[in-house]
Amino acid sequence: MLQVRGESIISPGAKQNLIPLAIPLSESSSGSVTALLRWPTAPPGMEMPVVEVRKHGVWLLSKNVDQYIHRILVEEDANHSRESNNELFRASAGAGVELYKKGDFAESRISNLDVYLLRKVGLFPDIIERKVMHHFEKGDQVSALITGEFYTKKEHFPGFGRPFVFNAEVLLKVGRKLEAKDAARGALKSPWWTLGCKYQEVADIAQWEDEQIEYIKEKVTEEGRQEDLKKGKAPAQVALDEAAFLLDLASVEGTWDDFVERIAECYKEAGLHDIAKFVLYRD
């Protein structure tokens, strides 16, 4: 399906300069990589998400593969591009038939594609963010704020910081600086590679200088590890925490390859040998 859409299929081991938790699938002509995300310690109930890999981390495209395929088929059907339409439906093989029947969008009598996708397919970050911006364009700040808040509900995108970043931007837009600062600080409690933008952009709203980065740099020193162990933290947990901290640090400048070996060692120390192997795997 990705090939039919004009993307080049790439090797799952083509991970140079990419976040090591990604399983690359395809690359577009603009150079953006679509991948699956293998989350080492996934939040409960999380399937393997589909993401766009960016320099500083990932952008969530879909919470799972089925939702991603479903959305592609609906969009193709709605756009009436008959040739590629048929080709895509053929490429989706059995999966497509189960998820979506051609003509369902027209039959639904829902005129807005985004509304159909949210109601019938699932929640997608880009659509929710677009919805908020439409509210602003109409001068409806209240609906924009309500939708921004809805986006952050933890059952919607567990583990991802992006909803909190966007909500902080929304609050800032309406002049609620203090609430925006709190929302941004909340976002930085999530993995920094899930923010959907550079760390610095969020740190600026949070009104933090380099203290968070310095704190994390201290945590990954031998002294930091020993301190955690003395506090009674299990060695496996200390190793997992260190891996998470290193991923955060790598995301700041997008220097993934500098950290990958130590990250793999941490997963090995935590007993996650499969994840350690996966992190190191590359062509």
Automatic annotation (TrEMBL):
<dbReference type="InterPro" id="IPR045287">
    <property type="entry name" value="PAB"/>
</dbReference>
<protein>
    <recommendedName>
        <fullName>Cyclin delta-3</fullName>
    </recommendedName>
</protein>
